[in-house]
Amino acid sequence: MEDLDYLKSKDTFLAGADEVGRGPLAGPVVGCCFLLNNVTKKKVKNLFEFAQEWEVTDSKKLTQVKRLKIISALGLNLETIKPSQKLIIDIPKVEGLNFSLTEISHDIIDDINILQASLLAMRTSFYKCAEEIDSLFGEVLIDGNKFLKIEKENVRETPLVKGDSRSVLIGLSSIVAKEYRDLLMQKLGAKFPGYGLEKHAGYPTKTHKESIAKLGPSAIHRKTFKGVKEHLV
User: Fold this and answer.
1) Predicted confidence (pLDDT) per residue in 85-132, tens digit
2) Where are the domains of the chain?
3) Residue 140 forms beta bridges with which residues?
């Protein structure tokens, strides 16, 4: 994990952001940020130890059982997490770690496109994490190859391709965002039956596309996406 490589002596924070849900045909995209405030090399090393103990990495490389164990070790409850809420993470030897998560709806995705919606989700999550920090001086690590364009002085941004397997903070964001969105899509599957959202989380599987063709798009389908827009009335 490379988080420590980006820490400068004058930094007051180190953050990592990721998103889940760019590919689905339905539902929101979810962005997440973990931010370590009052950062020190010792704190980052302790965070590494936590990551090693719980095998934190890219969420796609972990089983759901492992992802849920990590979320539990962070002291988070998926059922009680609310979008745009800042939560303090209490784990041994790591003080000042906080977290926020943001949903960007299918309507906004259709309005501004999925790339911009994904960046907005991560950027909003960072702003929420950082809103009570007195001195914003530090680094935001971002999964992918795009900048968030954070409008604050002294905040550096570093996109990292495959960042969820290179940064603890991005990896944690990836894990929480995925499990949060999967649970949300299970609930939406019950609200919008017939599409199998609870099984594929809105991704363009063969059965999902067949369901859209048969039933027409639901209220939460992304109407600008191929596989949906062809079936609009």
Assistant:
1) 999 999 999 999 999 999 999 999 999 999 999 999 999 999 999 998
2) 3-192
3) 15, 157
Rounded CA separation 13/182 (Å): 30
Cβ-contact 103, 92 below 8 angstroms? no
Asked if residue 179 lies in contact with residue 67, where contact means CB atoms within 8 angstroms, the answer is yes
10 class by beta-carbon count within 10 Å (0-12 exposed, 13-18 middle, 19+ buried)? exposed
Q: What per-residue confidence (pLDDT) applies to 134?
A: 76
Q: Which residues have CB under 8 Å from 26's CB, separation 6+?
A: 106, 185, 188, 192, 195, 197, 202, 218, 220, 221, 222, 228
Sign of CA dihedral 125, 17, 225, 205: negative
Tell me the pLDDT tens digit for each residue of 39-88. 999 999 999 999 999 999 889 899 999 999 999 999 999 999 999 999 99
pTM above 0.85, yes or no: yes
What's the rounded Cα separation, in Å, for the pair 212 and 29?
Answer: 19
Count of beta carbons in the 10 Å neighbourhood of residue 207? 11
pLDDT score, position 29: 98
| Assigned token pair, 169 | 């903070």
Tokens of 29: 């995209």
User: Quick one: DSSP state of residue 192?
Assistant: S
Topology adopted by domain 3-192: Nucleotidyltransferase; domain 5 (3.30.420)
Parallel, antiparallel or unpaired: strands 138-143 and 155-160 = parallel
